Amino acid sequence: MRRLLLPFCILILLVHLTPVGAQAQSDETITFDEAVTIALDQNTDLQRAINDVQRQDATIRQRQFDFGPNLNLSTSTTRQFGRSFSQEEGAIVNQTTDIFRVNANSSITVFDGFNNIASLREANRQGEASELNLERTRQDVVFTVMEQYIALSQSKQEVEVRRGEVEFQEQQLEQIQEFVDAGARPTSDLFQAEADLAQAEQQLLQAQREVEVNNTRLIQTLQLDPFGTYTFEAPDVDPAALEMREYAISEMLDNAFDRRVDLRAQEANVRASEAGVRIAQSNYWPSLSVNMGYGSNWSSTVGALPGNTDPSFFDVLDSRRGGNIGFSLSFPIFDRLQRRTQTAQARANVREAEYALQDRRQTVALQVRQAILDYRNAQKQLEAAESRLESARRLRNAAQERYNLGSASIVELSQATRDFTDAASAKVQAEFDVAFQQKRIAYQMGTLSPDAPLAE
């Protein structure tokens, strides 16, 4: 009895010591607006874009301070021993001397061939580009969340369609069972009905799996705790969003060229590259700077001072203080063609940035045109799906009546049922595809607002 009691007590103790979160995790419900907020706070791509903006801000501040002077304060202590020339005695002496020095130095660049002006302009353009890229990244993150929410909603609607199919097949199986028991139908019809029910259950399981896959994708996008349990509440598709809208491609392209922040960011990169050319050309100019200094020193060999036979440490520093001011002018004459090489490289960078801008414009135009064409196709697919569903519904009802009257086979009824289920699934996909393609147009146009992504 004791052998059985000891393991039981240990098990009870372990259960009580197990953290509550490990025993049962609460199901956290996340709405679409909450998901967008979480993504904008935690998405790593967005955090990297924010970090880039902060780095560019630091560079801009550094370029601004390049216009001002620098200031250095230095101090040193030295002990000299052995023979040295004593200025006080005017002879070579053998002694040990302690020396203390303190100096302040400052310099300012008066002219450097406009290098500091061009450097500040380059930093400002790069900072502008990083801020615009940050805004586009925000749009990317919100659009990704929206896309995954739409996919999740679609998969949930697919589950409802498949669940309805299972319920219908169960009712159909019960009815056929009654027909078989009454001898009105052969046993093979019962086998076919059982096979149809099994197929419907399998398709339901696949639809439920797709829901879990979409849940996992959202957890990854939002950087949520993978050990948590979450329920994502997606907004319903607005019926107004399914209405046909006309888009003029030429007008949409002009608007996209004006609104796409990534295109404006590339334009800022071109201007930054042009400033890089002026930075390289500044090496052809002379440079002028002003240097100033002020300091003092103390020596242990200092004797009496005029009017002071026993000077203190600060009296000696005061008596030896002094300063200097100077100008430094430099003319570049020959630098082994480094200036020419740097200027050529800077101009090549400008051309590369212009090529990238041209490619970006072509990409934007293609994305907008493709989004409009996909939207039009989605609208046509929705119209076809609605007609197909209505026809499939009438066909299934007719096949059911004919089967009940004994004028149709189980194969015809099964085929009509599958056609209706496929039509219902196609309509669900078409509805969500229209809603998605409409938002995709806003995204490709650059008008998708991260603060109100569902707004028109």
Descriptive labels:
456 residues, alpha+beta, Outer membrane efflux proteins (OEP), 65% helix, 15% strand, elongated, disordered N terminus
Question: What report would you give on this structure?
Answer:
The protein is α+β, with helices and mostly antiparallel strands and 456 residues long. It has one domain (31-67, 112-285, 335-445): Outer membrane efflux proteins (OEP) (Up-down Bundle). The chain is built from 11 helices and 6 strands. The protein has helices spanning 2-17, 20-23, 32-42, 44-65, 115-181, 187-221, 249-259, 261-281, 313-319, 338-405, 410-445; strands at 27-31, 70-86, 91-111, 229-233, 287-299, 322-330. A 4-stranded antiparallel sheet has the order 2-3-5-6. Strands 1-4 form a two-stranded parallel sheet. The model is unreliable at 1-25 (pLDDT under 50).
